Structures are given as C-alpha cells and as structure tokens.
Amino acid sequence: MISSREFKKGFSMVTAVFVIFIMGSITALIMNVTGKSLKLTTTQYQKEQAMLLARSYTELAMLYVIHHNRVSNNNCLEQINGVFGDPNNLYSIRVDIKYIGNSQLLPNCPKNITPTWSVANPTGFDSSISLIIDTYISYKDFDDLSGDRNITFYRRTVQKL
Fold this sequence. Notes:
By secondary structure, the chain is an alpha+beta fold. The chain has one domain (about 5-160). Helices cover about 40% and strands about 25% of the residues. It is built from two helices and four strands, in the order H-H-E-E-E-E. Strands 1-2-3-4 form a four-stranded antiparallel beta sheet, with helices on one face. A hairpin with a 6-residue loop joins strand 1 and strand 2 (about 90-100). The longest helix has about 60 residues, at about 5-65. It is rod-shaped and about 105 Å long. The model has no long low-confidence stretch (mean pLDDT about 80).
C-alpha cells in the first residue's frame, strides 16, 4: 500500500513536469510571435525604403530631363540606372523615361509617343511635352535563405514639362 508521504512526492513530481511543460509552451509561443514581428518589421522597412527611393529617383529623372539639352546632345534621356545601399542591403534602381507630345518639340527622341489627334497648329496638350516615368526598385528579401527571391517595387508618374 502507498503511504500518503509517497503519494505527495509523486504528485509533486507530476506537478513539476506539468509546470515545466507549460513554461516551455509559453516560451515557444513568445519566440514564434517575436520572430513573426521581426519579419514583419524587416519587410516593412525594406518596402518603405524602396518607396522613398522610387520617389527620389522620379524627381531626379525630372531634374535630369529638364537640364538635358536634347538639341546639342542630339538625343533624349531615356533611362537612368543606379544602386543604393551596402552590399548586404542593395537596392537596384532603373528609371525608364518616355516622352509624350508634339513630335516637332522632340526632334531627337525616337521613342516618343505622339498623340494621334495632333493638328497642324498645336494647342493644349499638343503644344507641350509630358513625361511618363517608370521607376523600378529591386531588392533581395532579408528573410529568403536561398537568396533567389527579388522583390520589385514599381512606380509610374506622369509629369508635364
């Protein structure tokens, strides 16, 4: 027959194992939530950085186009490429520029878009030049262990010169 003292020792052992199991489960849950929070913060940081770079490079493209002399250079500025960041956090940037408007105002731009409604005496939209600026920001996902996954942020802007 089991005495009450031996029963208390056995019950204490079961209670200790149960408490250790509960503490381990809570610790695992906390680690899981912390890992997900860290991943979300990292992803949000990278996306915000890409959005800011896209905005900056769009404005840079507009400045370059404004100061680019299409007549003396005998061409139009069509693309800007760049990189940003350290080797572990590198952003690759490509800006494509297309011109819209009267082809007479863009004599050296082979890739310009001329509206089909152009008239002999341009007025309104046909008398000006507009830009379509497509900005692509590519970067690697921090959480991708294989390193093969690129994320691309895209921004399109239409700007009148």
